[in-house]
Write a structure and sequence with these properties.
alpha/beta, 303 residues, Thioredoxin, 59% helix, Glutaredoxin, protein-disulfide reductase activity, 3 domains, Serine Threonine Protein Phosphatase 5, Tetratricopeptide repeat, Thioredoxin_CS, elongated, redox-active center
Protein backbone atom coordinates (compact mmCIF):
# COMPACT_ATOMS: atom_id res chain seq x y z
CA UNK A 1 0.00 0.00 0.00
CA UNK A 2 1.30 3.45 -0.91
CA UNK A 3 0.53 6.20 1.60
CA UNK A 4 -0.73 9.65 0.60
CA UNK A 5 2.26 11.97 0.30
CA UNK A 6 4.74 9.12 0.90
CA UNK A 7 8.14 9.65 -0.65
CA UNK A 8 9.43 6.11 -0.28
CA UNK A 9 8.14 2.59 0.00
CA UNK A 10 6.85 0.66 2.97
CA UNK A 11 7.93 1.51 6.53
CA UNK A 12 11.53 0.47 7.04
CA UNK A 13 11.64 -0.28 10.77
CA UNK A 14 12.85 1.27 14.01
CA UNK A 15 15.34 4.13 14.31
CA UNK A 16 18.78 2.92 13.15
CA UNK A 17 20.74 2.16 16.32
CA UNK A 18 24.03 3.07 14.62
CA UNK A 19 22.73 6.61 14.12
CA UNK A 20 22.05 7.22 17.80
CA UNK A 21 24.74 5.15 19.57
CA UNK A 22 28.37 5.24 18.45
CA UNK A 23 31.93 4.90 19.70
CA UNK A 24 33.63 8.27 19.92
CA UNK A 25 37.27 9.34 19.73
CA UNK A 26 39.20 12.48 20.54
CA UNK A 27 39.36 13.15 16.80
CA UNK A 28 35.60 12.85 16.31
CA UNK A 29 34.53 14.47 19.59
CA UNK A 30 33.83 17.92 18.15
CA UNK A 31 31.65 16.53 15.36
CA UNK A 32 29.96 13.68 17.25
CA UNK A 33 29.30 15.57 20.48
CA UNK A 34 29.72 19.34 20.34
CA UNK A 35 28.29 19.99 16.87
CA UNK A 36 25.73 17.17 17.00
CA UNK A 37 24.34 18.44 20.31
CA UNK A 38 23.28 21.68 18.60
CA UNK A 39 20.46 19.74 16.96
CA UNK A 40 19.98 16.71 19.27
CA UNK A 41 21.06 16.25 22.92
CA UNK A 42 24.13 14.00 23.20
CA UNK A 43 25.17 11.87 26.16
CA UNK A 44 28.88 11.10 26.49
CA UNK A 45 29.82 7.98 28.43
CA UNK A 46 33.51 7.96 29.47
CA UNK A 47 34.50 4.36 30.21
CA UNK A 48 37.33 1.81 30.06
CA UNK A 49 37.53 -1.93 29.42
CA UNK A 50 38.88 -2.66 32.93
CA UNK A 51 36.03 -0.77 34.66
CA UNK A 52 33.42 -3.09 36.20
CA UNK A 53 30.78 -0.39 36.92
CA UNK A 54 31.16 0.79 33.30
CA UNK A 55 30.05 -2.63 32.07
CA UNK A 56 27.00 -2.32 34.33
CA UNK A 57 26.08 1.23 33.29
CA UNK A 58 26.69 0.88 29.55
CA UNK A 59 23.77 -1.45 28.71
CA UNK A 60 21.35 0.63 30.82
CA UNK A 61 22.37 3.80 28.96
CA UNK A 62 22.02 2.10 25.58
CA UNK A 63 18.60 0.74 26.49
CA UNK A 64 17.29 4.14 27.63
CA UNK A 65 18.72 5.97 24.62
CA UNK A 66 17.29 3.39 22.21
CA UNK A 67 13.87 3.76 23.87
CA UNK A 68 14.03 7.52 23.27
CA UNK A 69 13.89 6.77 19.51
CA UNK A 70 16.22 9.45 18.32
CA UNK A 71 15.42 12.18 20.83
CA UNK A 72 18.88 11.67 22.41
CA UNK A 73 22.18 10.31 21.10
CA UNK A 74 24.92 8.41 22.95
CA UNK A 75 28.68 8.62 22.31
CA UNK A 76 30.90 6.12 24.18
CA UNK A 77 34.51 7.20 24.73
CA UNK A 78 37.22 4.79 25.93
CA UNK A 79 39.44 7.07 28.04
CA UNK A 80 42.49 4.78 27.74
CA UNK A 81 42.53 5.30 23.99
CA UNK A 82 41.08 8.82 24.00
CA UNK A 83 42.20 10.76 27.08
CA UNK A 84 42.12 14.35 25.74
CA UNK A 85 38.52 15.41 26.27
CA UNK A 86 38.19 13.36 29.46
CA UNK A 87 41.08 15.46 30.76
CA UNK A 88 39.51 18.73 29.60
CA UNK A 89 36.27 17.81 31.40
CA UNK A 90 38.30 16.86 34.50
CA UNK A 91 37.09 13.30 34.65
CA UNK A 92 38.60 11.85 37.82
CA UNK A 93 36.76 8.52 38.01
CA UNK A 94 34.66 6.40 35.68
CA UNK A 95 32.07 5.78 34.56
CA UNK A 96 31.52 9.48 34.01
CA UNK A 97 28.52 10.67 32.04
CA UNK A 98 28.01 14.14 30.57
CA UNK A 99 24.96 15.52 28.77
CA UNK A 100 25.60 18.06 25.99
CA UNK A 101 22.99 20.48 24.64
CA UNK A 102 23.74 23.32 22.20
CA UNK A 103 27.44 22.45 22.22
CA UNK A 104 28.05 22.54 25.97
CA UNK A 105 27.71 20.19 28.97
CA UNK A 106 24.49 20.83 30.91
CA UNK A 107 24.18 17.80 33.20
CA UNK A 108 25.92 14.61 34.23
CA UNK A 109 26.79 12.05 36.88
CA UNK A 110 29.57 9.69 37.96
CA UNK A 111 29.33 6.04 38.91
CA UNK A 112 26.80 3.39 37.94
CA UNK A 113 23.19 4.34 38.65
CA UNK A 114 20.15 2.03 38.84
CA UNK A 115 18.41 1.52 35.50
CA UNK A 116 15.38 3.54 36.63
CA UNK A 117 17.55 6.59 37.39
CA UNK A 118 19.39 6.22 34.10
CA UNK A 119 16.06 6.28 32.29
CA UNK A 120 14.99 9.41 34.20
CA UNK A 121 18.26 11.10 33.24
CA UNK A 122 17.76 10.28 29.55
CA UNK A 123 14.08 11.27 29.57
CA UNK A 124 14.90 14.58 31.24
CA UNK A 125 17.52 15.31 28.61
CA UNK A 126 15.11 14.40 25.80
CA UNK A 127 12.72 17.11 27.03
CA UNK A 128 15.50 19.69 26.96
CA UNK A 129 16.01 18.83 23.32
CA UNK A 130 12.36 19.35 22.46
CA UNK A 131 10.98 15.95 23.40
CA UNK A 132 10.29 12.79 21.46
CA UNK A 133 10.54 13.54 17.71
CA UNK A 134 7.71 11.10 17.01
CA UNK A 135 5.44 13.04 19.37
CA UNK A 136 6.47 16.21 17.55
CA UNK A 137 5.54 14.63 14.21
CA UNK A 138 2.18 13.50 15.61
CA UNK A 139 1.48 17.06 16.75
CA UNK A 140 2.48 18.34 13.31
CA UNK A 141 0.07 15.87 11.68
CA UNK A 142 -2.77 16.94 13.99
CA UNK A 143 -2.13 20.61 13.20
CA UNK A 144 -2.12 19.85 9.45
CA UNK A 145 -5.47 18.09 9.77
CA UNK A 146 -6.97 21.04 11.63
CA UNK A 147 -5.82 23.31 8.79
CA UNK A 148 -7.30 20.96 6.19
CA UNK A 149 -3.86 20.03 4.84
CA UNK A 150 -4.50 16.33 4.18
CA UNK A 151 -1.29 15.88 2.20
CA UNK A 152 0.86 17.39 4.93
CA UNK A 153 -0.79 15.25 7.59
CA UNK A 154 -0.36 12.09 5.52
CA UNK A 155 3.31 12.90 4.96
CA UNK A 156 3.88 13.31 8.71
CA UNK A 157 2.10 10.04 9.50
CA UNK A 158 4.11 8.25 6.79
CA UNK A 159 7.40 9.49 8.29
CA UNK A 160 6.36 8.28 11.75
CA UNK A 161 5.45 4.85 10.39
CA UNK A 162 8.79 4.57 8.61
CA UNK A 163 10.46 4.93 12.01
CA UNK A 164 7.86 3.00 14.01
CA UNK A 165 5.63 0.80 11.78
CA UNK A 166 3.28 -0.12 14.62
CA UNK A 167 2.80 3.33 16.13
CA UNK A 168 -0.88 3.13 17.09
CA UNK A 169 -1.51 6.88 17.11
CA UNK A 170 -0.05 7.31 13.63
CA UNK A 171 -2.00 4.34 12.28
CA UNK A 172 -5.19 5.67 13.82
CA UNK A 173 -4.60 9.16 12.46
CA UNK A 174 -3.80 7.90 8.97
CA UNK A 175 -6.81 5.59 8.90
CA UNK A 176 -8.98 8.50 10.03
CA UNK A 177 -7.50 10.70 7.31
CA UNK A 178 -8.29 8.16 4.58
CA UNK A 179 -11.79 7.62 5.96
CA UNK A 180 -12.53 11.35 6.02
CA UNK A 181 -11.22 11.76 2.47
CA UNK A 182 -13.56 8.99 1.29
CA UNK A 183 -10.89 6.36 0.60
CA UNK A 184 -12.45 3.58 2.67
CA UNK A 185 -10.33 0.84 1.07
CA UNK A 186 -7.08 2.44 2.23
CA UNK A 187 -8.59 3.20 5.63
CA UNK A 188 -9.36 -0.51 5.98
CA UNK A 189 -5.81 -1.45 4.91
CA UNK A 190 -4.32 0.82 7.58
CA UNK A 191 -6.59 -0.73 10.21
CA UNK A 192 -5.21 -4.13 9.28
CA UNK A 193 -1.67 -2.85 9.96
CA UNK A 194 -2.51 -2.07 13.59
CA UNK A 195 -1.26 -4.50 16.27
CA UNK A 196 -3.86 -7.00 17.42
CA UNK A 197 -5.91 -5.58 20.28
CA UNK A 198 -4.60 -2.02 19.74
CA UNK A 199 -6.80 0.63 21.35
CA UNK A 200 -6.98 4.17 20.03
CA UNK A 201 -9.91 6.60 19.63
CA UNK A 202 -9.15 7.14 15.94
CA UNK A 203 -8.91 3.41 15.23
CA UNK A 204 -12.22 2.85 17.03
CA UNK A 205 -13.82 5.74 15.13
CA UNK A 206 -12.72 4.41 11.75
CA UNK A 207 -13.93 0.91 12.58
CA UNK A 208 -17.32 2.37 13.49
CA UNK A 209 -17.42 4.53 10.34
CA UNK A 210 -16.58 1.56 8.12
CA UNK A 211 -19.30 -0.49 9.80
CA UNK A 212 -21.79 2.31 9.10
CA UNK A 213 -20.71 2.48 5.47
CA UNK A 214 -21.00 -1.29 5.01
CA UNK A 215 -24.50 -1.38 6.52
CA UNK A 216 -25.79 1.67 4.64
CA UNK A 217 -28.49 1.20 1.97
CA UNK A 218 -27.42 2.56 -1.40
CA UNK A 219 -30.73 4.30 -2.17
CA UNK A 220 -32.93 6.52 0.01
CA UNK A 221 -35.90 7.25 -2.25
CA UNK A 222 -37.94 4.25 -1.05
CA UNK A 223 -37.55 5.21 2.61
CA UNK A 224 -38.34 8.86 1.99
CA UNK A 225 -41.54 7.85 0.18
CA UNK A 226 -42.54 5.56 3.03
CA UNK A 227 -41.94 8.31 5.59
CA UNK A 228 -43.98 10.78 3.56
CA UNK A 229 -46.84 8.31 3.66
CA UNK A 230 -46.37 7.36 7.33
CA UNK A 231 -44.11 9.40 9.68
CA UNK A 232 -44.40 6.57 12.24
CA UNK A 233 -42.71 4.06 9.91
CA UNK A 234 -39.71 3.66 12.21
CA UNK A 235 -38.06 1.00 10.10
CA UNK A 236 -38.04 3.32 7.07
CA UNK A 237 -36.64 6.18 9.17
CA UNK A 238 -33.99 3.88 10.66
CA UNK A 239 -32.85 2.70 7.20
CA UNK A 240 -32.91 6.29 5.96
CA UNK A 241 -30.68 7.31 8.89
CA UNK A 242 -28.27 4.44 8.09
CA UNK A 243 -28.02 5.64 4.50
CA UNK A 244 -27.32 9.20 5.64
CA UNK A 245 -24.62 8.11 8.10
CA UNK A 246 -23.00 5.82 5.55
CA UNK A 247 -22.66 8.72 3.10
CA UNK A 248 -21.11 10.97 5.76
CA UNK A 249 -24.21 13.04 6.55
CA UNK A 250 -23.82 12.28 10.25
CA UNK A 251 -25.80 15.15 11.77
CA UNK A 252 -28.79 14.49 9.54
CA UNK A 253 -28.66 10.82 10.52
CA UNK A 254 -28.57 11.83 14.19
CA UNK A 255 -31.67 13.96 13.77
CA UNK A 256 -33.61 11.09 12.16
CA UNK A 257 -32.62 8.68 14.93
CA UNK A 258 -33.48 11.24 17.60
CA UNK A 259 -36.92 11.48 16.01
CA UNK A 260 -37.37 7.70 16.38
CA UNK A 261 -36.40 7.92 20.04
CA UNK A 262 -38.84 10.81 20.51
CA UNK A 263 -41.70 8.83 18.96
CA UNK A 264 -40.89 5.41 20.49
CA UNK A 265 -37.65 5.12 22.45
CA UNK A 266 -38.08 1.36 23.04
CA UNK A 267 -38.64 0.52 19.35
CA UNK A 268 -36.78 -2.60 18.19
CA UNK A 269 -34.89 -3.03 21.47
CA UNK A 270 -33.74 0.63 21.48
CA UNK A 271 -32.12 0.24 18.06
CA UNK A 272 -32.17 3.98 17.39
CA UNK A 273 -30.31 4.83 20.60
CA UNK A 274 -27.71 2.12 19.93
CA UNK A 275 -27.18 3.39 16.39
CA UNK A 276 -26.70 6.90 17.74
CA UNK A 277 -23.86 5.66 19.94
CA UNK A 278 -22.18 4.08 16.91
CA UNK A 279 -22.45 7.37 15.01
CA UNK A 280 -20.99 9.30 17.95
CA UNK A 281 -18.03 6.91 17.99
CA UNK A 282 -17.56 7.17 14.22
CA UNK A 283 -17.66 10.96 14.29
CA UNK A 284 -15.27 11.11 17.23
CA UNK A 285 -16.06 11.77 20.90
CA UNK A 286 -15.03 15.44 20.69
CA UNK A 287 -16.74 16.15 17.35
CA UNK A 288 -19.65 18.56 17.05
CA UNK A 289 -21.79 15.66 15.83
CA UNK A 290 -21.16 13.77 19.08
CA UNK A 291 -21.49 16.84 21.30
CA UNK A 292 -24.74 18.09 19.78
CA UNK A 293 -26.16 14.61 19.39
CA UNK A 294 -25.53 13.70 23.01
CA UNK A 295 -27.11 16.95 24.17
CA UNK A 296 -30.20 16.29 22.09
CA UNK A 297 -30.45 12.68 23.25
CA UNK A 298 -29.97 13.58 26.92
CA UNK A 299 -32.54 16.36 26.70
CA UNK A 300 -35.04 13.94 25.23
CA UNK A 301 -34.36 11.02 27.58
CA UNK A 302 -34.39 13.09 30.74
CA UNK A 303 -37.15 15.55 29.89
Amino acid sequence: MTLIGETGGAPTGDVNKAEIIKDGTDASFMADVVEASKTTPVIVDFWATWCGPCRQLGPALEKAVTAAKGAVKLVKVDIDRNPAFAGQLRVQSIPAVFAFVDGRPVDGFMGALPESQVKQFVDRLAKQGGGDPIEQMLEMARESLELGDMGGAAQAYAQILQADPQNVKALGGLARLYQQSGDLERAREVLEMAPEGAKDPDLDAVRAALALAEEAPSETAEFEQRLAADPDDHEARFEFAKALAGSGRMMEAVDELIEIVRRDRAWNDEAARKQLLTIFEAAGPTSEVAKQGRRKLSSLLFS
